[in-house]
Amino acid sequence: MVKELGIGLAIGILIVLAIQGFNILPLIFLGFLGFFMWQMLTQGGVAGATTDNDSSEKKIPLIQFDEIGGQESAKKELMEALDFVKDVKRIKHMGIRAIKGILLSGPPGTGKTLLAKAAARYTDSIFKAASGSEFIEMYAGLGAKRVRNLFKDARQTARKYNKKSAIIFIDEIDVLGSKRGRVTSHLEYDQTLNQLLIEMDGLSVDDEIQILVMAATNRIDILDPALLRPGRFDRIVQVDLPAKDGRLSILKIHTANKPLAEDVNLEQIAKETFSFSGAHLENLANEAAILALRENSSQIYQKHFMEAIDKVIMGERLDRRPTKEELIRIAIHETGHALISEILQPGSVSTITITSRGKALGYVRHNPEDDLYLQTKDYLEEQISIAIAGAIAEEILLENRSTGATNDFEKAIQLVKTMVISGMTDLGVVGENTVPKNLLHKEMTKIFKNIETKVKELIKKNQEIILKIAEELVESERFSGNELRELLKRERCA
Question: 20: domain range?
Answer without folding.
Answer: 2-43
